[in-house]
Amino acid sequence: MIRNVNPPLADSSSAVSLLRVPVKPPVHLDRGWFHWLEGPVFDQIRPGPLDADLTAHGNGEPIGTKIIVHGRITDSDGNPVRHTLVEIWQANAAGGYIDSLDQSGFPLDPNFFGAGRCLTDHNGYYRFITIRPGPYPAMFRDGGRAWRASHIHFSIFGSSASSRLITQMFFEGDALIKHDRLINSITCPLGRDALIAKLDIDNTISESFGPPRTRPTLDGSGVLVDPPARSDANALLPRNPSALAYRFDIRLRGPRGTYFE
Ligand SMILES: [Fe+2]
Description:
The two termini are 22 Å apart. By secondary structure, this protein is mostly beta strands. It has a single domain, classed as Aromatic compound dioxygenase (Protocatechuate 3,4-Dioxygenase, subunit A, Sandwich). The mean pLDDT is 83. The strands form two sheets. Strands 1, 2, 3, 4, 7, 8, 9, 10 and 11 form a nine-stranded mixed β-sheet that branches. A two-stranded antiparallel sheet has the order 5-6. The radius of gyration is 19 Å and the shape is globular. Helices cover 2% and strands 22% of the residues. The site of fe (ii) ion (FE2) has 2 residues, from strand 7. This is Protocatechuate 3,4-dioxygenase subunit beta.
């Protein structure tokens, strides 16, 4: 089925879309104007082994329900997009971002910094461990206020850095989805559904027991510090691996492509 109903450009339901759409006519540039490079080359910024585990960046476990978010990234023909950089960023379990633009005042989690990255493997597969983000109220450019459903921001590099695509992932069964202005700016039901990750019970991990609790590490100073490099011994402490799994496949282009901001 061909979907030809795109959300309007510069839609006021996205607070940032006005910043991401062209406001002037395109300018033609000869091919020779560009530098050409085959495929993405991420060797210089290769993600570290813990970059895909957002629950392992602090000195202790972050608050919230631990989740696995995983899936495949394919092109319009269903071919895997291999070895490409996938980045995510999100609110913590209370709906707060570590971001100077976040003026919500919602509590920050000293053990959760809200960003991660990984490379897809040879089959275009990616996998993150994180916590389920909380919803938060947003004000839109037309002055309207509405709650955003829980979501995770995704950035995917395609065949080159210039083909970076950004989208948002929602959670199956979230009652707030029908009130979320951003996803509902997509008029096509299939387009909205493509942004909703499905609960993947087969890949969910269920362990009743974890390591003994340790003392909280919050020092109470209120000062935010950069995430520590996880070369310390705590990074290797055993942790309860339990996590709900959500499957989120992304198709970069084509009539069944995932919508992007
Ligand atoms: Fe957000």
